Amino acid sequence: xxxxxxxxxxxxxxxxxxxxxxxxxxxxxxxxxxxxxxxxxxxxxxxxxxxxxxxxxxxxxxxxxxxxxxxxxxxxxxxxxxxxxxxxxxxxxxxxxxxxxxxxxxxxxxxxxxxxxxxxxxxxxxxxxxxxxxxxxxxxxxxxxxxxxxxxxxxxxxxxxxxxxxxxxxxxxxxxxxxxxxxxxxxxxxxxxxxxxxxxxxxxxxxxxxxxxxxxxxxxxxxxx
Length: 225
Ligand SMILES: NC(=O)c1ccc[n+]([C@@H]2O[C@H](COP(=O)([O-])OP(=O)(O)OC[C@H]3O[C@@H](n4cnc5c(N)ncnc54)[C@H](OP(=O)(O)O)[C@@H]3O)[C@@H](O)[C@H]2O)c1
Known about the structure:
This protein is α/β, with parallel strands linked by helices. The chain contains 8 helices and 7 strands, in the order αβαβαβαβααβααββ.
């Protein structure tokens, strides 16, 4: 989905920085897109040095950041019982999905505050919704990936707390549920196309007004926490 988000924001005329762990792979993806207004930036969200270097590079080359989309994510557990899943697996999910997201956000926040109006969009998931996970009438109730799910629940809490902290600034913070999207992530089984999966994220990113904050939403509206 990250690449599709980059493609659509570039098509809308934005200068987009595509975070990539491997610059050569990132550059190859950009070349394939054929967009002139996209640049790669080395970024491993689980590596503090990489994140700090990316923030310095953005400050030096762009001077500010208008929108941060925290899209990187992994799911190392799948249908493992919460009673027996190795804690090490859960930690790895958190290292990228939660601690990585916070590391990037904290590093980029000074640059976002330099923009006249800025957005932080956290790509979360409906499987992180405690309300849906405890409702036996939903498909989320059947889901069992406690490391991944809890990391997204934690992302939601970070979204709320940071939105509250920044409520008197020009920086908004929102979480998005892409739905079950047909990427390698969903094992090729998602019921949404990649284009459908990025709709809400791109919509929020391009919203001319910037008065929505502290929400968790998808294309249907508000998702329960
Ligand atoms: N697909 C779904 O059904 C679904 C549903 C709900 C939420 N989501 C969320 O949507 C987001 C995008 O997922 P996707 O479906 O597009 O899966 P994907 O194709 O596996 O994409 C995940 C991306 O995260 C990047 N990444 C992983 N670890 C990273 C790290 N340490 N530093 C920087 N980048 C890293 C990957 O980079 P490489 O390309 O280098 O591996 C990849 O580009 C994730 O946050 C996921 O949790 C997906």
